[in-house]
Specification:
By secondary structure, this protein is an alpha/beta fold. 31% of the residues lie in helices and 21% in strands. It is built from 8 helices and 9 strands. Strands 3-2-1-4-5-9-8 form a 7-stranded mixed sheet. Strands 6-7 form a two-stranded antiparallel sheet. The protein starts with a helix and ends with a strand.
């Protein structure tokens, strides 16, 4: 987990959200889904507080395992890990998790689900990347050669994923947001056959902490042009799909 912590304690990881109008608009939309009766909210994986700071309730606590982003949280904040929550059951009316679950390595994910269930909050409000193609933006570590997702996403979620993961809850609301063109899976496969991966400069390998290898410039521009052409064709025919799913679950 030390390498994960090192990754999320990079200021560059959070700077992209500071003035991102799309993310700010989505944060404002997410807050509107909090039921009126909710008086206490725990925002797990709150990051730099883009959503936490918008919540107007009697009790609002932001929680993250990285300390650097917590400096921007204006509400009460605590540094803790999702697989070992420092709260008793029934403490909160609603537990909020926005773009959190996809970041959890397998060794943490199941423990986290058990911990969330232990809290027995009446509501869970969760946002996740919807049916994300995890291979589309893969990087290759320049040090150890591992293939990894630049944002450290470890899983993808289908339409009804929450039914199995949270069996004690019923869905009260399901919404889809951020409609964009989807990456072409054939181009993704071709790119990888040519051993060409994304070269995000701030991406760090979860296996060794190394940086992403930079693709050869000719292949980078060639595939960039193909991706752009594919995107423009889809946009001309208005072929888009949602990038995020938001669900509001209520405990039975």
């Amino acid at each position: 987990m030390d390498l994960e912590l090192k990754h999320y304690n990079q200021k560059e990881v959070w700077e992209i959200y500071a003035e991102n109008t799309t993310e700010i608009a989505r944060a404002k939309e997410t807050v509107t889904y909090i039921p009126d009766e909710v008086a206490s909210v725990l925002d797990i994986g709150c990051g730099n507080g883009i959503i936490t700071n918008l919540i107007d309730r009697e009790v609002v606590i932001g929680m993250d395992f990285a300390d650097l982003p917590l400096r921007n949280v204006k509400k009460d904040a605590i540094r803790a890990s999702i697989d070992s929550l420092p709260f008793k059951e029934g403490t909160f009316d609603l537990v909020l998790m926005t773009e959190v679950l996809e970041h959890l390595p397998n060794r943490v994910y199941r423990k986290a689900l058990r911990e969330i269930g232990r809290l027995q909050a009446k509501y869970l409000l969760i946002s996740i990347p919807f049916e994300e193609n995890l291979e589309a933006n893969q990087c290759k570590c320049g040090s150890c050669g591992s293939i990894f997702h630049p944002a450290h996403h470890y899983r993808t979620f289908n339409e009804d994923w929450f039914v199995e993961e949270f069996p004690d809850y019923d869905a009260m609301l399901v919404r889809y947001t951020t409609y964009k063109t989807a990456p072409n899976p054939h181009l993704v496969q071709l790119r990888h056959r040519c051993r060409t991966y994304s070269g995000y400069r701030n991406a760090s390998c979860p296996e060794c902490g190394g940086r992403a290898a930079q693709p050869r410039i000719i292949l980078r521009y060639a595939f960039g042009a193909l991706d752009l052409l594919d995107k423009k064709v889809k946009e001309s025919f208005r072929i888009t799909r949602p990038c995020h799913q938001v669900v509001l679950l209520m405990r039975r």
